[in-house]
Each structure stands twice: as structure tokens, then as C-alpha cells.
Design goal:
Elements (H helix, E strand, L loop, with lengths): L2 H23 L13 H11 L8 H21 L3 H23 L2 H5 L2 H13 L7 H9 L1
Helix pairs in contact: 1-3, 1-6, 2-3, 3-4, 4-6
Amino acid sequence: MNSKWIKVFLRLALGVAFLSAVADRFGLWPATVSAWGSFDRFLIYTGTLAPWAPAALLPALGWGITILEIVLGLWLLLGFKTRFTAQVSGFLILIFGLSMAVTSGIKGPLDYSVFSAAAAAFGLSLIPGKYLEIDQLLEKKKH
């Protein structure tokens, strides 16, 4: 498999994962497979991962993360500013994994492949060239 298809696969896998997590927060996954099932339950988990944050800040933090994940997910799927989007995604996932490890132990982020996802995002940012990316169309319009 060449790097073009690996890049597409990484973009799709990471983008869909972000959007799936967001869908779960809004109850779009069946309860039998849902991690949170509601935004309120997601905010409780956010508080677990950010014990330093005052309770009044948790809704803003939860919404900020959710909006960021929607944007990153869509940008990855579209191939918009892929290198930058992948780097931001990698840092967000890494922060999530480190927060999980600090607050509840290392087993969770290892079992859920959180560090693998962060590594995938950072790896995506290093793959040169563009393939099936909206950036290709935007570059053509500049010329």
C-alpha cells in the first residue's frame, strides 16, 4: 500500500473517531454501545479528567472540546489543512490520554489505544503530498 492510501485511511479513521465520540455525547449511539449517552454524562467525565477545573468552567470546557472535535473531524475527512489539523489532533488526543493516565491510571488509555491514535495523528502530519484532499482544490484556485 502506498503512502497516499495510508494518508487517506489515517484521515478517515481519525476523523470518524472524533465525530463518533461527539455523536455519543448527543445520544446518537444506542445505549448498549454508548460511552456517555448524554452531554451531561460527558461533562461529568470531563470533570474527572480535569479535576483542576472549577465546576463552573466544565460546561465551557466540554463545549470547547466538542466543537474542536467536530471541526477537527470534519477537516480530517475533507483533507483541509491536513498537516496542521493532524498536529492539533495529535496534541488533543495526547492530552486526553495523559489526563486519563493521571486521573485513572495508565490501563485505560492503553486499552483504548489513545496513545496509538495520537501517534497516528502525528504520523499523518508527516506524510507529504496531497491525495483526495480539499486542499488540492484550494491550491488550484490560487494559481
